[in-house]
Design a protein that fits this description.
Multidrug-efflux Transporter Regulator, Chain: A, Domain 2; 4-stranded antiparallel β-sheet; single chain
Length: 164
């Protein structure tokens, strides 16, 4: 059986008010895996959900919109053999290929115009061993980096001894 904790335990452990968590669920920003007949007060959360909630909260704290934070949650998983970082980056999102005469060779990347769309984010999980190289990509204008290992270290003690 999967270990779970109550909404009260989760909110206390993450320093999030219950009403705030209830608002996130009501606005479909956080989706509990299972509702109980006891309603919101009877919800139980597993460690994966708790990690996502803690990550969502951290993203909001640093100014990421709720809509972008919700999308970022879909990209969360871990690596067994390395640290993992959730990286939200804004920058080039594509290239405009110039028109060429019929039958001409395809233009090279250097011949294409890079396109940036303000407000567009790319979401990636990056291994700790590859983070520096990933962030040095000249096509990124800026990035937000969250250590999922640090989030897990915050959340895991909430489940020590949890019966579920």
């Amino acid at each position: 059986m999967v270990n779970t904790i109550s909404t009260r335990e989760l909110c206390k452990g993450l320093s999030i008010s219950k009403s705030r968590l209830d608002q996130w669920v009501a606005r479909d920003l956080i989706a509990p895996k299972m509702e109980t007949s006891a309603g919101p007060s009877g919800r139980q959360w597993d460690i994966t959900e708790a990690i996502k909630i803690a990550t969502f909260d951290r993203l909001l704290e640093i100014g990421v919109s709720a809509a972008h934070a919700k999308v970022a949650l879909q990209h969360i998983y871990g690596f067994k053999d390395d640290e993992v970082f959730l990286v939200l980056s804004t920058g080039m999102v594509g290239r405009i290929i110039p028109s060429t005469p019929r039958g001409s060779p395809t233009p090279t990347d250097d011949e294409c115009t890079k396109v940036h769309m303000p407000g567009h984010f790319d979401y990636e999980l990056v291994r700790g061993s590859e983070l520096g190289q990933f962030l040095s990509n000249p096509d990124f204008y800026g990035s937000v980096v969250i250590s999922l290992d640090n989030i897990e270290a915050l959340v895991r003690p909430l489940f020590d001894g949890a019966e579920g």
